[in-house]
Design a protein that fits this description.
The structure holds 2 protein chains of 2 kinds.
Chain A: H1 3-20, H2 53-57, H3 73-76, E1 80-85, H4 90-102, E2 107-110, H5 114-117, H6 141-147, E3 157-160, H7 166-179, E4 188-191, H8 195-202, H9 209-226, E5 230-231, E6 233-236, H10 238-242, H11 247-268, H12 272-275, E7 279-285, H13 289-309, H14 316-319, E8 323-327, H15 340-353, E9 358-360, H16 373-388, H17 403-425, H18 429-434, H19 437-454, H20 483-498, H21 501-516, H22 522-530, H23 535-546
Parallel strand pairs in A: 1-2, 1-9, 2-3, 3-4, 4-5, 6-7, 7-8, 8-9
Helix pairs in contact in A: 4-6, 6-7, 7-22, 9-11, 11-13, 11-17, 13-15, 13-17, 15-16, 21-22, 21-23
Chain B: E1 7-11, H1 20-31, E2 35-38, H2 45-54, E3 59-64, H3 69-82, E4 89-94, H4 98-106, E5 112-113, H5 119-134
Helix pairs in contact in B: 2-3
The chains are: A alpha/beta, B alpha/beta.
């Protein structure tokens, strides 16, 4: 537009503003995004005056990848439909995996129980009551072999939500593949392995930050040589968001975590282009539809720019922010749970319009328990309806160019940089975490949101409005039989009797030696796993060397 | 004479790291005028009961979202009794199905709040509890 045209538009907008000034705007008590960004009634070219198409958007598969990381996006291949699942024993979850694969799921995603997430065996005293409850119990290579029994690991890709003990669980998986006759280099999948967000949000940490980062760089280095198709970290905003953050905080803290891993790799002397292509991301898709779409687009643009300019990445693959999305667990309501099907569908739509590479849709019953088979199937069908029926995947980034979406994308980017600057001034992410900064920002946002709900500034259907009096929950819930714990402990104790305990002890001793030196600890961990040392034994040995992290309790 | 504040221990038992609810409730109760202590994560029932006795609290609120409630609530009650502190009231919040709630109420657990509860409801519950106790 030339100057005259801008002037005309400005004038027209001012005229319009006068007309609407005294008209009622009262359908909602608050017109702000979930990140507290105030919203106008309408957006026009005036809100994106500096917009430059090629600089800010480019074409799909081209820098800065705002419109998507692939040239043909969903015309070439749909997103991977990957349902996070795991419960009970390895046998139970193996059955669920086969059920999902037989209904058109295209990738596996393992949920581990709490003891496993914290590197503890099923017979650890702290594990009482938690074995197989929130996920599947995996205490040794033996359990992993059962988990993937009859599932050819050269044909599926597997994502594992595991962080503190990621190196050990990954070793179990690699050897399970080897035993099936699949060499390491053919295995495809992801370990979450994002320890920074554990300190910030999910709280399944084990060791202090420094040794944890060392293990992560060991994994990146090992993978670049031995398991090149593996995503070594899934840098996760999901849990940050679930802990109560805003979209802006999720975006900023996640990317900052990502920059920290890149810097750690470079510090080790690794070439950024050897490990950056295997870094992937994991975001939440929450209720605020357009803000979420803007978040995904902004994330791609920021990552590409920083990888290129700040970290000097040369390969195109290093610049691509590939991400998995999960619809927001914290947006599900315990009340009128059937309504969660609708919430999940909209959140999934936002993820697809945001260009996700893979997607998990939550099941309606997950505010109460792990999902039943029926509930999971509806969740999977939600994705299939999106892909095959409603046409949203036909055209790439269909909201690109919307004044509102482009404004929000740039606004989220700007707010993220504000956080980057603040955290850099604090000495980087590790220093900020130790000072409790991101944790406090999130707790503050969670509290503000709770107050907005209590004051009815935000409405959640069935919770603070449109409530059913004396509601009875009428959906069936999955229950974990306490027998699971007994059976799992029995198997573990049998394993301890049958294996060669002298070899195990020697391997654990060698692992401790490696941990004390600068050696890459993936090799001795693999040796321990092969000898059927248990998860708790391997992590226990490493705790002796690295110590344990304790967080300061605050609220 | 100034009335002594009701002292509450908000505790996060087990391995579960979902502390959003516990922190929001702790903060809300403090803002409502109670004296609140938060244990932090990964507490055993033993640790929680010891803290409650040392800090001389009036009431313990357990936040459990991991499904381990049937193992943890009875153990906390048992330990309180064993250590002569059965007067400390135990209530909770989290994801607890109705049939489990009934069982826990029967062994003497106080109110169990669902997700979506307003903090003002918890405040009212605690105030009523101590009004009753005060007039005993």
């Amino acid at each position: 537009m030339n100057d005259k045209e801008w002037e005309e538009l400005e004038k027209a907008y001012e005229e319009w503003e006068k007309k609407i000034k005294d008209l009622p705007q009262c359908t909602l008590p608050l017109f702000k995004t979930l990140s507290d960004i105030p919203l106008k009634l309408v957006y026009t070219p005036l809100d994106i005056k500096d917009f430059d198409y090629l600089r800010d958007l480019g074409l799909p598969g081209e820098y800065p990848f705002t419109r998507g990381i692939r040239h043909t996006m969903y015309r070439g291949r749909f997103w991977t439909m990957r349902q996070f699942s795991g419960f009970g024993t390895a046998e139970d979850t193996n059955k669920r995996f086969k059920f999902l694969l037989s209904h058109g799921e295209t990738g596996l995603s393992v949920a581990f129980d709490y003891p496993t997430l914290l590197g503890r065996d099923s017979d650890d005293p702290m594990a009482k009551g938690e074995v197989g409850v929130c996920g599947v119990a995996i205490s040794s290579l033996r359990d992993m072999e059962i988990l993937f029994d009859g599932i050819p690991l050269d044909e599926v890709s597997t994502s594992m939500t595991i962080n503190g003990p990621a190196a050990v669980i990954w070793a179990f998986y690699l050897i399970t593949g080897e035993k099936q006759g699949v060499p390491f280099y053919k295995l495809r999948g992801t370990i979450q392995n994002d320890i920074l967000k554990e300190y910030i949000a999910q709280k399944s940490y084990i060791f202090p930050p420094e040794p944890s980062l060392r293990i992560i760089v060991d994994i990146m280095e090992f993978a670049s040589k031995e398991v090149p198709k593996w995503n070594t970290i899934s840098i996760s905003g999901y849990h940050i968001r679930e802990a109560g953050s805003t979209a802006v905080q999720e975006l900023a803290f996640t990317l900052m975590d990502g920059f920290t891993y890149v810097e750690e790799g470079i510090k080790r002397g690794l070439d950024v282009d050897t490990f950056a292509p295997r870094l992937s991301f994991f975001f939440n898709s929450h209720l605020d539809f357009f803000e979420e779409i803007a978040k995904f687009r902004a994330a791609r643009r920021i990552w590409a720019r920083e990888m290129k300019n700040r970290y000097g990445a040369k390969r195109k693959e290093s610049l691509l922010l590939r991400f998995h999305t999960q619809t927001a667990g914290c947006s599900l309501t315990a009340q009128q749970p059937e309504n969660n099907i609708i919430r999940t569908a909209y959140e999934a739509l936002a993820a697809v319009l945001g260009g996700t590479q893979s997607l998990h849709t939550n099941s309606m019953d997950e505010a109460w328990a792990l999902p039943t088979e029926k509930a999971v199937l509806i969740a999977l069908r939600t994705q299939q309806i999106l892909a095959y029926e409603i046409g949203v995947a036909n055209v790439i980034d269909p909201l690109g160019g919307s004044y509102y979406v482009e404004y929000l994308t740039s606004k989220l980017e700007e707010e993220a940089y504000r956080y980057f600057n603040k955290i850099e001034k604090m000495g980087g992410m590790v220093a900020a975490i130790k000072a409790g900064y991101p944790q406090r920002e999130i707790a503050e946002a969670a509290y503000r949101y709770q107050k907005e709900l209590e004051e009815k500034k935000r409405i959640i259907v069935g919770v603070n409005d449109f409530v059913l009096e004396n509601e009875k929950i009428e959906i069936p819930l999955l229950r974990i039989d306490p027998e699971v714990e007994r059976r799992q402990i029995e198997r573990l104790q049998k394993l301890r009797k049958e294996r060669d305990n002298i070899v195990c002890e020697r391997k654990l001793k060698e692992l401790k030696m490696a941990a004390k030196s600068n050696e890459n600890i993936m090799y001795p961990i693999l040796e321990c796993a092969r000898a059927y040392c248990t998860l708790g034994e391997i992590i226990g040995a490493l705790k002796e060397v690295f110590g344990e992290y304790k967080e300061e309790a605050f609220f | 004479m100034e009335k002594k504040k009701i002292k509450i221990l908000i505790a996060k038992p087990g391995l579960d790291g979902h502390d959003r609810g516990a922190k929001v409730v702790a903060r809300g109760l403090r803002d409502a005028g109670f004296e609140v202590i938060y244990t932090g994560l990964h507490q055993t029932p033993e640790m929680i009961v010891n803290t409650a006795i040392q800090e001389d609290v009036d009431i313990i609120g357990l936040s459990i979202l991991s499904g381990a409630h049937m193992a943890i609530f009875p153990e906390v009650l048992r330990l309180l009794k064993e250590k002569g502190a059965a007067n400390i009231h135990v209530f909770g919040g989290g994801i607890i199905p109705d049939e489990d709630k009934e069982k826990l109420y029967q062994i003497g657990v106080g109110k169990l709040f669902d997700p979506g509860t307003k903090i003002s409801e918890i405040v009212e519950y605690i105030n009523n509890l101590f009004k009753e106790k005060g007039s005993e």
